[in-house]
């Protein structure tokens, strides 16, 4: 038996919206401590890792670890019906192993109640160890700003060079019509979430496929800030923290430039 | 000679928007009492009935009953040019039997004046008697809520079961990805138009093509409330009242389930 | 060396948006007095003339007349990245003749700085003499109203008759579904930009391709008012003034009706 109530249901909606274009079918892993998702994208280029701690839920009961195989696009279709202020109650019963029941209720007593049975699938798991290494550079910036940069630079080319140095963080793209650079400098805004905080132990410069950075920014609704971590020769981490009880992280290996 | 001035011209605009996807060509029937439209949809599955009483108009003169055959899509193109606060003056002169003239004027004296001559057609009429029977269940609910339900449930399947019982009204759909139910309960909101009022003599459960329910909800702009009437084995009526001087009604026969 | 700073960068963005659908590649002609563009559209039917006087810029330095050949669609792609309150610094250096550098800076010191190098092309110039003749009729009206009329009347046909007479200015279109007239009368609104001012020496009636009038209205964002000038048998001028330091003008020859 698994049962959990997420008062702010739209958090889960935004998670599925954030990953559905990258990840088709995946396991929703439920344990005593958390719900998590870990999956390579369908092209096996990037990795998605989602975590919602049990403290995110007003009710949480998970008798035994359980993997619920979902189609993210079907889940997304059902979540489209979630009202902005609705809670979600998740229920997976032991005697119905191929069904995940979701109840959408508005806080308003007189509102509509909706319940959905989503068919589950068996999905082979390829659990991946993600080393928790320290990074040479960490950049915290407004998520909407990162989204804008990734979207804008697409018109110039396919590959974005991200270089973190003394001046700040520079996003550069070069292509047929010309080239462009956008420089973000550390700064302290009145609101923490509008600040840019750069922690740099040593300068790092890496190249990434803009297409994937743009996939990641589908998570912008999840968080006002994004945290970008880089070290030479290892995958970049683009993290959208979900308040203090979870996150959606994307990992992407740098492109190796041939000279 | 037919001449009528509709101060709130956008009411007529919304009527045409509501029916144009269902009904291609139809007669605008003008009599001393009212303007009305009655037509099957092009697939002959549902029936549309519109009525605007003469009291809806600030000026109304109809010397003799007259049928003006219009293309709803051409009419819609012209009405796209109507300003939000414009009045419409309709004029059909006896010596120009194939022209309907419409004048759009804003209340503002300095505004633009637009006049249009729409070409009319001869349309064979198949006047249909609609029996005015009492219904076992009548549900009044916010039209936007009904629109949301019909739209949302589409992703799950093609057929919607509407069952009116003690608990309330349940909209259910079942399909390949799972199934869903949305329950609406009677409730009294501060504003009448936000209330849900259910009159039930006996429980009724019928199946309908969601595609058509979604066609009907194009009338949502016409009215804050929708009134749904059901009896076993007879067509459902989905009515959008137009203040106290008219309505747009849609009739749709239930689907017969084969076991 | 050419260097110029446009504090309100979006003015230039709006100019390029206004002409890019008409003009593919064109020269940005820089002189001591102004930046200007003059080009026929790709079908050689209409003419575009843009002028931004040096007084439009907070810094302006042009050592020698210079023609910068740009692709308007590439320029537009880069300008999409301009923030609403960003300034643009243009730089063309003599030793890099095939590059136009643009710097986008927000007034906010902490904001992002973006710089772009746009590749330039050699474009053959066909400088056209535009006679500065007096016109029989001049109409000043809100640009948004002109945009609405040109857009709305498209559904009725391809050719718009514009006739300026005692009553006002009449825009007429006739086609398969019927015909329509929109009449604009002179009037004095509280705000100058909402007024309609008609100067008529003698009545003029000319026919124009609506398709082109609709191209011209892409300049609506540039100015609250549009000034339309007409004389018999000569091209109409549709001018969008840019404050008091420039303009975007479109010229279009009237259609000759065959009887």
UniProtKB/TrEMBL annotation, chains A, B, C:
Q: Which UniProt keywords apply?
A: DNA replication, DNA-binding, Nucleus
One GO term of the biological process aspect: leading strand elongation
Give the CDD domains listed for this entry: PCNA
Where the record annotates domain Proliferating cell nuclear antigen PCNA C-terminal, the positions are: 129-255
- PANTHER family in UniProt: PROLIFERATING CELL NUCLEAR ANTIGEN
Any idea what this protein is called? DNA polymerase sliding clamp
A GO CC annotation given for this chain? PCNA complex
Question: Would you identify the family this protein belongs to, as annotated?
Answer: Belongs to the PCNA family.
Q: Does the keyword DNA damage apply?
A: no
Give one Pfam family.
PCNA_N
Question: Could you tell me the superkingdom of the organism this chain comes from?
Answer: Eukaryota
Please list the residue ranges annotated as the Proliferating cell nuclear antigen PCNA N-terminal domain.
Answer: 1-127
Q: Where in the cell is it found?
A: Nucleus
Where primarily located? nucleus
What organism, scientifically named, is this protein from? Nitzschia inconspicua
Per UniProt, what is one GO molecular function of this protein? DNA polymerase processivity factor activity
- Locate the transmembrane regions by residue number: none
């Amino acid at each position: 038996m698994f049962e959990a109530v997420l008062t702010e249901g739209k958090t889960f909606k935004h998670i599925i919206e954030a990953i559905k274009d990258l990840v088709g079918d995946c396991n929703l892993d439920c344990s005593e401590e958390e719900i998590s998702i870990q999956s390579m994208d369908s092209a096996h280029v990037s990795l998605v890792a989602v975590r919602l701690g049990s403290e995110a839920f007003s009710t949480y009961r998970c008798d035994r670890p359980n993997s619920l195989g979902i189609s993210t696009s079907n889940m997304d279709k059902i979540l489209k019906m979630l009202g902005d202020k609705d809670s979600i109650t998740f229920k997976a019963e032991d005697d119905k192993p191929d069904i995940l029941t979701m109840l959408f209720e508005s806080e308003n007593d007189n509102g509509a109640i909706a319940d959905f049975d989503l068919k589950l699938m068996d999905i082979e798991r390829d659990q991946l160890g993600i080393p928790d290494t320290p990074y040479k550079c960490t950049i915290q910036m407004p998520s909407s700003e990162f989204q804008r940069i990734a979207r804008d630079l697409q018109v110039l080319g396919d590959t974005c060079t991200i270089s973190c140095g003394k001046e700040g963080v520079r996003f550069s793209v070069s292509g047929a019509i010309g080239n462009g650079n956008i420089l973000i400098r550390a700064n302290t805004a009145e609101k923490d979430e509008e600040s840019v905080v750069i922690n740099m132990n040593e300068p790092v410069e890496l190249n990434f496929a803009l297409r994937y950075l743009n996939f990641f920014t589908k998570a912008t609704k999840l968080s006002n800030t994004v945290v970008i971590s880089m070290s030479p020769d290892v995958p970049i981490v683009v993290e959208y923290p979900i308040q203090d009880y979870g996150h959606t992280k994307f990992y992407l290996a740098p492109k190796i430039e041939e000279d």
